[in-house]
Amino acid sequence: MQLELNEQQKMIQKMVKEFAEKEVAPIAAELDKKGEYPTKTLEKMAKLGFLGAIVPTEYGGAGLDTISYATIVEEISRKCASTGVITSVHNSLVCWPIIHYGTEEQKKKYLPILAKGEKIGAFAATEPNAGSDLGAMQTTAKLKSNKYIINGDKTFITSGSEAGIIIVFAVTDKSAGPKGISAFIVESDMKGFKVGSIFDKMGINANLVSELIFEDMEIPKENLLGKEGDGFKIALGALDGGRIGIAAQAVGIAQACLDESIEYSKQRQQFGRPIAKFQAIQWMIADMATSIEAARYLVYNAAYTKDKGEGRFSKEAAMAKLFASETAMDAAIKAVQIHGGYGYTKEYTVERLFRDAKITEIYEGTSEIQRLVISGSLLR
Ligand SMILES: Cc1cc2nc3c(=O)[nH]c(=O)nc-3n(C[C@H](O)[C@H](O)[C@H](O)COP(=O)(O)OP(=O)(O)OC[C@H]3O[C@@H](n4cnc5c(N)ncnc54)[C@H](O)[C@@H]3O)c2cc1C
Fold first, then answer.
1. What is the DSSP string of 74-91?
2. Cα 369 to middle of ligand 1, angstroms
3. Given this model, what pLDDT does residue 132 score?
4. Domain spanning 7-115 has what CATH number?
5. Which numeric CATH code is attached to 239-378?
6. Span from the CA of 357 to the centroid of ligand 1 (angstroms)
């Protein structure tokens, strides 16, 4: 296990931290308030290589290791959790499946566009009746001469209304259960694709999350990703990496809760002294900092295990996501408490952090599903 960042990782962390402070922090509250997608920020991030962080250099990416990638998601999320999750989905759930399962033609066609941020990626697995149980999906893809015809509805899709390239999962053989699910690379300008409603959410409001509707959508046969029936395996593999991204997002949110709490508790005076002088506040700060450090090491451990390349890292990724997301929620509760009544108003950042933290316990597998993954790998 790697406990300390190497020189290159430290350099990337410094660069992204400076970028986030200068470009992400000043607009985060406003984007959240307006529910506005961070298009301009993503363009700037693409120029710095953040959108192609894990894409090999030969396809126009930065070719970074997973720890470096996790530091990017953490530092961006520390200032804006919406921009953080968009970055994570784009890299882990869209670039990764193409890198690992794409044909040479697919890699050459799609990876440079994604790495340059010319098109944003989305991952469309969830359906109204298939959330934790993705094997129950009903969207179908039928091969007709040299085209697949896709029909069905997806829901809760991050960047759904903004994405140009979408990894879509659909049933090609109903009788085969999860082994009858296939993955496709879909372009949003293909005929038969429609964006449905955009959700009015509790948090991460700058991440536009929508329904996607496929009505007799025709996609070329060569846009099948992997082989027919590989879809479930591709989705689970992508989600293992995605959970490292969401865990890093959660660490970023938790760290922001701590940053805000330290600053506020030194300033706010009650009973003639800063509230930081009260042991009750000190203990909350100490507990937050300790959990955040532990969560960050779990993220690094999962990232390190992934990069060792010795097979699945599902358990490590699930542990990182479970612990980091619960740390983020707990840190957000404490941060609002430390801010008292002001923390309950939209004037203070911790109010947004509180709303943003909750989703990390839900998407890319709820905490209950992470516990199933962890216990499943131990009780095999
Ligand atoms: C803001 C947002 C963004 C999202 N982005 C994407 C995206 O980009 N792409 C995408 O495909 N999906 C996305 N999702 C969907 C997300 O991954 C699902 O919401 C999540 O996996 C849970 O599914 P569900 O909402 O259907 O809940 P359900 O599966 O219905 O779960 C409801 C409750 O039951 C529990 N539960 C379910 N099964 C079990 C079990 N076996 N054991 C114990 N408890 C169980 C769950 O833990 C939860 O508490 C997003 C969701 C949101 C809210």
1. HHHHHH-HHHHHHHHIII
2. 9
3. 98
4. 1.10.540.10
5. 1.20.140.10
6. 15
